[in-house]
Amino acid sequence: METQFVDKSRVTIREISKNVARDFIEKHHYTKKASSTRYAIGIFYREDAEHMFFGGDNEKLIGCLTYGHPVSNRTVNSIADGLELDEILELTRLVCLDGYGKNLESFSIAQSFDWLKKNDPRVKVLVSYADPEQSHTGGIYRATNWVYQGCGASKLMPDFSIKLKENDLWIHSRSVSARFGNKNINNLAKIIGKTFWRKEETSKHRYIYFLCNKKEKKRILNNLKMPIISYKDIKEYVQLIQKIHVKDGVVEKIEVLQGIDNGWKPQKIKLKDEQTKNSI
Question: What pLDDT, in 10s, does the model give residues 151-172?
Fold first, then answer.
């Protein structure tokens, strides 16, 4: 674990090509995948020795951030009324090499705020997510004063991966729909016809940050669709895993193996051609 702070005098940021950012992310980010990118910003570290070929500062690319517009209006509409798509950017990727100081990420994010204000003054709000499945709760966002809005706060309902045998790989919810034509638990029981397992797909911690002026910030704060939650109320996220016991094509019992089940109860009905209203 790093204990030293980054030497801020040696760190600079500037825009880099999307190809350079993609290559860096695919090599160093835990997902190994780039994401939606409007702006790619490189994080550079000035080393002691001069450049061996050209003289002058010898800078090394040690990280990058990418910002992109949300892929749909759903994110825009979930923040506040009156915002346009080009007024919101999502911090889609952040990755830094180890060994340059424990606060490199938060320092680089803070520097990117100034860069965005200068290069795209239309942007009023930033949004980003921390993935609890990677043991992330958003410490770097709290260190740079983002507003916390909860875990899974913008989801209308949970999505579930399933597996047909205990030792199988999980089938993502998108593939469940494509493969079985439905994600409804009662319909899945009828189609699969035997006991299966399902896992709630990770709900992420959501943070927002304001780049706009104080007047505009006040207007947006007064119209937020989701509440602001205190940092001290951030809770550890435990993923829900269930064993769905099926008999004669009907859910007989839902056994909770991990996490807390906050809702669905099995319906003791025979499914023929009718659809249920339960969409999970």
Answer: 865 566 778 999 999 999 999 9
Residues 25 and 49 sit within 8 Å (Cβ to Cβ): no
> Angle CA(81)–CA(82)–CA(83) in degrees, nearest 5?
100
Residue 72: its pLDDT value, please? 75
What's the confidence (pLDDT) of residue 273?
A: 32
Pull the structure tokens for residue 49.
């020795």
Copy the structure tokens of residue 9: 């005098």
Under 8 Å between Cβ of 170 and 162: yes
- Tell me the pLDDT tens digit for each residue of 197-233: 999 887 789 999 999 999 999 999 999 999 999 998 8
CA distance 160 to 199: 5
Cα torsion through 139, 144, 145, 148, rounded to 10: -40
For residue 163, give Cα distances in angstroms to 16, 167, 169, 190, 239: 42, 8, 6, 15, 15
> In this structure, are residues 157 and 263 in contact, taking their beta carbons and an 8 Å threshold?
no
